[in-house]
Design a protein that fits this description.
Blueprint: H1 3-11, H2 23-34, H3 41-48, H4 50-78, H5 85-93, H6 95-112, H7 115-124, H8 132-150, H9 154-181, H10 197-212, H11 230-258, H12 271-275, H13 282-314, H14 333-346, H15 358-379, H16 393-413, H17 416-440, H18 463-489, H19 493-501, H20 506-535
Length: 549
């Protein structure tokens, strides 16, 4: 078998049956996953002030969403495979980094899979009171319905998501029209929250802005489900301006119509208040719209996360049973069912403690995608790319460097507790990789020539060095965080963490945890570098290895 044939076998090895999915449908699949309406932006307005909120919504697409979408479109047009960015990183950086990115997103998806259900039912309970048992039974029914729907394939699940998303889109278009018709206030005054000050206004609100403009790479998991695979990368490019318009126009017109920016929240002044200027039952209507939005998001989350898990399993980097595909519909039946089961369990609990590492997981994924795009431009400049970011490497770097800086900032300001949990969670990926690689075999099972095993480590050649790079990066980040976080959180951190965790020294405990974890990571880095040099030297590795980073 030729080298190119082997590569195709490890990258495009999906057994999922492709279905007819139009670009229109895929746009709304991406829309429901990445946007789903303006819900959550109310808190952005109240924390930052109206002017700054609108500036954040206007600028973040260029500095944060565009690096995600443009690189995703370039790589997705070249490699429109089931598994999306997991496969791109695997090709550009190798098995371990692909594993890390794929599992980060899958674990983050599993940890948060029930959140849309919980939030959606909470909105509905504003209209229909339910006790705890009734609430859970309703959540369970919703989970089962959408799990069964996904077992029928992306075409039918996507059609439902499109209908639900069009309802949400129409509601916010209506809000924008009503708001502009009742313009009574300057929507950018005051520019920032004077109580918090300019810096406080920005730091308190930027996390919300980053969150509402995230997720564009996740829908790349679904490319292999589509007969016309180009709809995936085209849909990603379309959904960014669509989301931007949907966030900005209703928010601007709403502020212009009702003002009261400091009172904006999900249960006070919001988009329903704007619609209420012409519709007396607007509050009830928007509770239903919010439920519809969260339902569409849950439906799409099952689609995307199940394909990511399936692709990893097909590569023997997860239990093989998760790659089982139904004979009738050609969908990854096992991974869809496991997500449904996890959602049924998760719908009973608060996910506050479980999602502490999710932001760090997401940032690691984005950074690995951008690095893989850079690496592939060097390694494979002649790779066919139906869409390519215009210009040479300099332009590519201009596009992604703002994303790097934003990701770095986001990890540091996400909270000391979240940072600590994230750095530990990410580095445990190497432990998970060692375990799964030894049990399941990894890419060696598919292509033993291109992905040979080091007989001493029982891992891929170079993996010890890759582990060292991961621990080394988080050693540096941890040291930076140890000195930066007190500057950022010092005025409120001790009181906040004491209240959150119930003891006065919680803040100092977390900071010391970051410091000692960083020291431990530094020691591990040094040890791994020594082991890499002694038992996995570069000059002893096979010459036909596909990946070297």
């Amino acid at each position: 078998m030729s080298n190119s044939a082997q590569r195709a076998n490890t990258l495009d090895n999906s057994k999922i049956k492709a279905q007819d999915v139009s670009l229109f449908t895929f746009v709304f699949i991406a829309f429901s996953y990445c946007c789903g309406g303006c819900f959550g932006i109310e808190e952005l307005v109240a924390s930052s002030g109206p002017g700054l909120a609108l500036v954040i919504l206007l600028l973040l697409p260029f500095f944060w969403a565009a690096p995600q979408a443009l690189v995703a479109a370039e790589l997705g047009s070249a490699m429109p495979y089931t598994g999306g960015f997991y496969k791109w990183i695997q090709r550009g950086l190798g098995e371990f980094w692909g594993f890390t990115a794929g599992w980060c997103r899958v674990l983050g998806g599993y940890l948060g899979i029930a959140i849309p259900v919980v939030l959606g039912v909470d909105y509905l309970k504003m209209l229909v009171p339910m006790d705890d048992l009734q609430t859970y039974l309703f959540k369970a029914a919703l989970i089962i319905v959408f799990t069964v729907l996904n077992l029928r394939g992306i075409k039918e699940a996507g059609r439902v998501t499109t209908i639900l998303s069009l309802v949400v889109l129409a509601a916010f278009v209506f809000v924008a029209i009503v708001g502009f018709m009742h313009w009574n206030h300057n929507p950018v005054e005051p520019f920032f929250n004077e109580k918090a000050g300019p810096l406080g206004s920005f730091t308190e609100s930027i996390a919300i802005g980053l969150w509402v403009y995230s997720g564009f790479t996740s829908v790349s998991f679904l490319a292999g489900d589509c007969k016309d695979r180009s709809v995936a990368w085209k849909g990603i490019l379309i959904v960014i301006p669509l989301s931007m318009i949907l966030y900005i126009l209703p928010t601007m017109s709403g502020l212009a119509a009702v003002g009261q920016w400091e009172s904006w929240s999900a249960d006070s002044v919001n988009y329903a208040t704007v619609a209420g200027l012409v519709i007396p039952f607007a509050a009830s209507l928007f509770a239903i719209i919010a439920f519809i939005s969260q339902s569409a998001m849950f439906n799409t989350s099952i689609m995307a996360i199940s394909r990511g898990l399936y692709a990893i399993s097909e590569d023997h980097l997860a239990p093989k049973i998760l790659s089982k595909v139904s004979k009738s519909k050609g969908v990854p039946i096992a991974s869809i069912i496991t997500i449904g089961i996890f959602a049924l369990i998760g719908a009973q609990f608060s996910f506050g403690a479980l999602v502490t590492v999710k932001v760090t997981f997401l940032m690691v994924d984005y950074i690995l995608i951008w690095i893989s795009g850079f690496q592939l431009r060097i390694k494979e400049p002649d790779m066919e790319r139906p869409f390519k970011i215009p210009g040479g490497m300099g332009v590519y770097l201009l596009v992604v460097i703002p994303g790097f800086l934003v990701a770095f900032f986001a990890v540091l300001v996400n909270g000391a507790n979240y940072f600590w949990g994230g750095m530990v969670g990410i580095c445990l990926m190497s432990v998970l990789y060692i375990f799964i690689k030894r049990i399941c075999g990894g890419l060696t099972k598919i292509d033993s020539v291109g992905h040979p095993i080091n007989p001493v480590t029982k891992l891929a050649y170079g993996d010890l060095g890759r582990f060292a790079k991961m621990f080394g990066v988080f050693t540096v980040l941890g040291i930076i965080a140890y000195f930066f976080i007190p500057l950022y959180e010092g005025s409120w951190g001790p009181e906040y963490y004491a209240d959150k965790y119930g003891f006065a020294g919680a803040y100092d405990f977390i900071l010391q945890g970051i410091l000692y974890t960083s020291i431990a990571f530094a020691c591990i880095t040094i040890l791994l570098l020594i082991l890499d040099k002694v038992i996995d030297p570069k000059d002893k590795r096979p010459k036909n290895l596909k990946f070297g980073l």
